[in-house]
Specification:
GO molecular function, one term: ATP hydrolysis activity
Largest sheet: 6 strands, mixed
Enzyme class: hydrolase
Keywords: ATP-binding, Hydrolase, Nucleotide-binding, Transport
InterPro entries: AAA+_ATPase, ABC_AA/LPS_Transport, ABC_transporter-like_ATP-bd, ABC_transporter-like_CS, BCA_ABC_TP_C, P-loop_NTPase
CATH topology of one domain: Rossmann fold
Strand order of the largest sheet: 6-7-8-3-9-10
Number of strands: 10
CATH architecture of one domain: 3-Layer(aba) Sandwich
Order of helices and strands: HEEEHEEHEHHHHHEHEHEEHHHH
Shape: globular
Helix content: 25-40%
Protein name: ABC-type branched-chain amino acid transport systems, ATPase component
Radius of gyration: 21 Å
Strand content: 15-25%
Structural class: alpha/beta
Distance between the termini: 20 Å
Bound molecules: adenosine-5'-triphosphate
CATH class of one domain: Alpha Beta
């Protein structure tokens, strides 16, 4: 079970901690974008596929199969503009595959999806990013061997230098590079990573890596940011600081979609939660609706997410665990062997 969430700013930052984002976000007037997003979603029915008042992303009949396995089968999904939408579900539910499809890193077998009414089908990740939809990636081994600043520059989109003709005009390339470096340094300062710009990304702490992933995604000045497990592997003491940075994205008018397994985090920052299981969306609604939804409890949270087990149930769970361990002893491969590398190539 994840630890109980602590109040924002309740702890003092230690030497290895990620400092909280700018304190201005807790203004006297409260978080206006948060209030707007929550007000817009407040009266919607808690139904799969429900229409949102102002959708930024609309997904229709998107399926993706790998051999005989249907990884994603989403009939209809709308993501409200300016809100934080949490995407949850058990391992293998199809969350990362859906992220890959929406950002052009993978192509579906069927279906359409759009951003601001513009069809994103058949676009490359680069083209999708130029339109304003980006996703974070976990730091792979290759990226770990680049410096923090080099990682940031990789996140820049629309570089004039990547065009062959423009590459023949070195002045134009240099001007773009200077602009990108300035933008990178601004972001690194905001995420308190500027002093580490020349360090190899591989030596950053877990929390600093997450900040770098987020900062890198912001290099292209996106409108929609998809965060893949922004809190995974982060020391619990740093979680609140990172949560503050995620909320700041909404305060700046961005639409945020994030995948997360920690339900305390999901409850804390989501305006709306979408639940996937076996490729399908099985529920959606405000965070408080999720633990009341039987399909979600059965598929993901478990029947006893909030209640202690009875003695009989405890015996049954222990017997099942014993049996599973026995099966594990008998074979060396399992889910982990195949899932340590995600479909985007990043390590888990
Ligand atoms: N490139 C691929 N080739 C074959 N199967 C894949 C590939 N990518 C994903 N899958 C399979 O598709 C299913 C959905 O995987 P996906 O990684 O999208 O799930 P997830 O919900 O993100 O899981 P997790 O929470 O473990 O990250 C899984 O059964 C996975 O093994």
């Amino acid at each position: 079970m994840p630890a109980e969430p602590t109040a924002h700013g309740a702890h003092a930052a230690g030497p290895d901690e990620v400092p909280a984002a700018a304190p201005t976000r807790e203004s006297a007037a409260g978080r206006i974008p948060q209030r707007l997003a929550q007000a817009a979603l407040k009266d919607l029915p808690w139904e799969v596929g429900v229409a949102k008042p102002d959708p930024a992303i609309v997904v229709d009949k998107v399926t993706r199969t790998f051999g005989g396995l249907t990884a994603v089968s989403v009939d209809h999904l709308e993501v409200q503009r300016g809100g934080i939408t949490g995407l949850i579900g058990p391992n293998g539910a199809g969350k990362t595959t859906l992220f890959n499809l929406l950002t052009g890193f993978d192509q579906p077998n069927t279906g359409t999806w759009s951003f601001d009414g513009r069809d994103l089908g058949k676009l490359s990740p680069h083209q999708v990013a130029r339109l304003g939809v980006v996703r974070t990636f976990q730091l792979t081994k290759a990226l770990s061997r680049l410096t923090v600043l080099q990682n940031m520059l990789l996140g820049a989109q629309g570089q004039k230098g990547e065009s062959f003709l423009r590459a023949l005009v070195p002045g134009g390339w240099r001007a773009q590079e200077k602009e990108n470096t300035e933008r990178a340094m601004d972001l690194l300062r905001r995420f308190k990573l500027d002093a580490k710009k020349d360090d190899f990304a591989g030596i950053l702490s877990g929390g600093q890596r997450k900040l770098l992933e987020m900062a890198r995604a912001l290099m292209s000045d996106p409108k929609v940011v998809m965060l893949d497990e922004p809190m995974a592997g982060v020391n619990p003491a740093l979680t609140q600081s990172l949560l503050g940075h995620v909320k700041d994205l909404r305060e700046e008018g961005m639409t945020v979609i994030f995948v997360e397994h920690d339900m305390d985090v999901v409850r804390d920052i989501s305006d709306w939660v979408v639940v996937m299981a076996a490729g399908k969306i099985i529920a959606e609604g405000p965070p408080e609706s999720i633990s009341q939804n039987k399909a979600v409890v059965d598929a993901y949270l478990g029947a006893h997410h909030d209640a202690p087990l009875t003695v009989e149930e405890e015996d049954r769970v222990l017997a099942e665990a014993d049996a599973a361990l026995g099966r594990e002893d008998g074979r060396s491969t399992g889910r982990h062997g195949t899932d340590e590398i995600s479909s985007d190539g990043s390590t888990r």
